[in-house]
Design goal:
This protein has 231 residues and is α/β, with parallel strands linked by helices. The chain is 35% helix and 19% strand. Helix 5 links the parallel strand 2 and strand 3 (94-97). The chain binds S-adenosylmethionine.
Length: 231
């Protein structure tokens, strides 16, 4: 509890530095089921070339990139602690410490993935993030990430996530540094609009392996944002 409180009062970067040694045992690490469902949807579209994991944390996304046989893989994150864990688990990959709001790559990757990180960016910050990913990709490259279907208002999770976001807004109103993490700021329509504004052509595919709702709709979709095929 003490550790969780210390993390909650830190910045995003500092909080993840503190959490890093235990991160893989928390529910915040993207589960292998989500990673494998993503790889399953991407596989028919491969090969992509070199891969990038944006906000890589301890390196969960490498399970996707390496299973697709992309060749060289790179992870980028701003938490030194998370990168140290990632480097220990995957010594052959390249690990770069950077704020992904200003990604330091140009035309280097065929595929970029990102898991569990979009909630760390305010809607107004997405333009810089997506522009940086666009710049990092080669012509015809793909930026892929899963996104959950909107929860019905009758669902317990709807209220749990709304409660979490409200608690974070109160925390950020009264405490510095802020810890930006909101679950309900990145609905598919808004994210799709921001990607399109950054130059991507956006489609989505259902992540059927993650299950369906009672009405038959998929619980999650994979966003596939492609750069123009000519520079
Ligand atoms: C919930 S963790 C997800 C880690 C990993 N992708 C996974 O799915 O297990 C979010 C990660 O995003 C990183 N992050 C958040 N904002 C960032 C930023 N502006 N620049 C770089 N990394 C950032 C954090 O340091 C953290 O490692």
């Amino acid at each position: 509890m003490r550790e969780l409180v210390m993390q909650a009062l830190s910045s995003v970067e500092g909080g993840y530095d503190l959490l890093a040694p235990k991160f893989d045992y928390t529910p915040f690490r993207t589960p292998d089921g989500v990673l494998d469902a993503t790889a399953g949807v991407l596989r028919p579209l491969s090969p992509f070339g070199p891969g990038l994991d944006v906000c890589c944390g301890t390196g969960a996304g490498l399970r996707v990139l390496t299973s697709l046989g992309q060749g060289p893989v790179t992870g980028v994150d701003f938490s030194t602690g998370m990168l140290a864990q990632a480097r220990r688990a995957h010594p052959d990959a390249t690990w770069v410490r950077a704020d992904v709001g200003a990604l330091p790559f140009a035309g280097a990757f065929g595929l970029a993935v990102s898991f569990g990180a979009l909630g760390h960016f305010l809607p107004a910050e997405r333009a810089a993030l997506f522009a940086g990913v666009y710049r990092a990709l080669r012509p015809g490259g793909v930026f892929a990430f899963p996104i959950g279907a909107p929860l019905p208002i009758t669902s317990g999770w709807y209220w749990a996530l709304a409660g979490f976001d409200l608690a974070m807004r109160v925390r950020n109103a009264v405490w510095r540094p802020p810890f930006v993490m909101y679950y309900r700021t990145c609905p598919l329509s808004a994210v799709q609009g921001d990607l399109t504004a950054s130059g991507f052509t956006v489609t989505t595919l259902p992540l059927t392996a993650l299950g369906r709702r009672a009405d038959g709709s998929p619980k999650a979709r994979l966003v596939l944002a492609r750069t123009a095929s000519t520079p």
